[in-house]
Amino acid sequence: MAAAVHFHFHLFLLSTILSFSSLFSIDPENEALLKLKKSFATSDSLSSWVPNQNPCSSKWDGVICNKNVITNLHLSDKGLSGKIDIEALMQIPSLRSISLINNKFSGPMPEFNKLGALKAIYLTKNQFSGPIPSDFFSGLGSLKKIWISNNNFSGNIPDSLRKLKFLNELHLENNVFSGPVPEFDHDIKSLNMSNNKLQGAIPASMVKFGANSFSGNDELCGKPLDKDCDLEPKSGMSWTVKIIIIIVIAAVVAIAFIFMKSRRRINDDFSARSSENHNQNNRVNVVQVHVPSSDHNRGSEHSTKRGSESKKGSSRSGGMGDLIMLNDEKGVFGLPDLMKAAAEVLGNGGLGSAYKAAMANGMSVVVKRMREMNKVSRDIFDAEMRRFGRLRHPNILTPLAYHYRREEKLFVTEYMPKGSLLYVLHGDRGISHAELKWPTRLNIVKGIARGLGFLYSEFSSEDLPHGNLKSSNVLLTENYEPLLSDFAFHALINPSYSVQTMFAYKTPDYVQHQTISQKTDVYCLGIIILEMITGKFPSQYHSNGKGGTDVVHWVFTSICDRKEEDLIDPELKSNTSSHNQMLQLLQVGAACTESNPEQRLSMKEAIRRIEEIQV
Ligand SMILES: *[C@@H]1O[C@H](CO)[C@@H](O)[C@H](O)[C@H]1NC(C)=O
Ligand SMILES: *[C@@H]1O[C@H](CO)[C@@H](O)[C@H](O)[C@H]1NC(C)=O
Known about the structure:
- It contains 17 helices and 24 strands.
- With 615 residues, it is an alpha/beta fold.
- The chain has three domains: 2-221, Ribonuclease Inhibitor (Leucine-rich repeat, LRR (right-handed beta-alpha superhelix), Alpha-Beta Horseshoe); 267-415, Phosphorylase Kinase, domain 1 (2-Layer Sandwich); 420-615, Transferase(Phosphotransferase) domain 1 (Transferase(Phosphotransferase), domain 1).
- It has a seven-stranded mixed β-sheet with strand order 2-3-5-7-9-11-13, with no helix packed on it.
- One 2-acetamido-2-deoxy-beta-D-glucopyranose is lined by residues 127, 129, 152, 154, 176.
């Protein structure tokens, strides 16, 4: 379990789409990126950016694509400096997010305002300086996230920020901004203006962000800071100035109030739209993970404030907003670390969508959002999760942490760069497929069998000790050791949702006979065995049965016709000395996929017969 772990749900399908479309498209954006690279003074870290390649299909470092178009440039920590060729970036109309965090750029704010479709700008930890023009953001109406903290920006906070309707995250901390704290027309979820040179009273509507968002500004006063504006003894301001300020503030508040009232309908529209946007985000490959935090008194979806209040790391208190560590062998982290992580959508498969989250401490995890998991009470759920966290077996993926909300659970596991068995067998133009020689495949089947043996003793009273066994839920370590994931959820997931999503419910046991039993897992094991021997994508994995090969039927008829040799994956054929082993395993696979559960092997028998096969 040394290597990281990865859930690959439908990544296989996704990567097929990507590679297919890349065959048919030329890449007008290759040149634009090379121009951009040229504008950097140092670009050693971008050696993967070379001419005559499609940046998406060639996986250029830092270039994130969705369906073969570039959506994000993720150039954090690359030691970059020099100019940023905005004209070049303008040739990439699909670009939605740019991250240059922790580089060595300096000088004034680049003209990102020419990229009107941007949704996120991350410039944290550079040496940008000088004022930002007051109207800079007026052409950037889609912006949701602006992180320009830890630079040397000065002058007033640009007025145009206030009018960004979708702005959700604004981080200006650790700069030298001066002047007043602006008031925003709409609700921002995450805001930080700490450690600047801001002055004057904090507007009443901004109090809710808490002192942590304004500290380190010596000349700021009023709530939520401890410093009362009126009682400021050494204020050099004359009474007239104070009265004028008070009148101005009152007028601003009154105007804002009237303005807000007249905008209410628009804002209502926006809340509907914002959930839509959120879904769209899931389709873009890199997003900031929005880990919903506690909601016991407000329905607030992204209350970062609460997240950062929650105890960092291993919280045993089990408060509603916490991330509960189940297994700290790989390190301890908290909800705030996840919220700050750069995330990549891995897929929207089976039980929920999954993201890879690369945290600032260098650790990468997979966060899976699970819906419809309210079959048991919260206490029982917690007890079950802790039990999961104690599982230790070389072929079992032990979860790291979970987060509980009524509507949704987050399930955190280690990230595995190699991906799933499904992906290695069928994904990525079959490059890795050839790596899977016979001894490796046999070893994987044996590892799966051992993991199942363990689950069948740990969860022996369950109908489905695994319940969702398929090659996308078998992850591979660097050494091709298999790890079972997504197991034993049957007791936790709402029954109607299980029927829709778990692979056990796609088997003949359920489809034809409406029953499930421990023999159902045996059937699923059989599919994996046949998949590994034939090298074919089983049609059983498609919910509508369209596409792929009906491996069960094919194996059955070939065995009847005594043409078993035809079934063996051409990649394995050259290994003639092992054909007997292959045929032996094939028989086990066939006996596991008997459509009548009575005639099917038991799990115990299947494991015994797999172990019998000599490597
Ligand atoms: C930041 O700007 C100030 C002047 O505003 C200057 O004195 C200081 O050296 C700058 N710091 C960096 C790291 O560029
Ligand atoms: C704002 O930034 C400061 C300085 O980096 C940090 O100490 C503080 O915790 C941050 N506040 C919030 C609310 O994130």
